[in-house]
Amino acid sequence: MIQLLQPENGAKVSLQTAAQTAFAENSRDYAAPDFDWRNLTQTTDPDCSIPAPVVFSWRADGEVLLQIARTPDFADTVREAAAKDTAAVYNLEIARTYFWRVVCGDAVSETRSFTTGECAPRWIYIDGTTNVRDLGGWKTMDGKRIRQGLLYRGSELDIHREITAAGIAELCGYLGVKTDLDLRGEVVGRRFDSPLGADVAYHLVPIGAYDEYFRETAPYPVIFGLLADEANYPIYFHCWGGADRTGSLSCMIEALCGVSEAEQDLDYELTSLSVWGKRSSLGEGWQMFIGELATLGETRQEQARAFLRRSGVTDEVMDRIVHILVEE
Question: In this structure, what DSSP letter does residue 99 have?
Answer without folding.
Answer: E
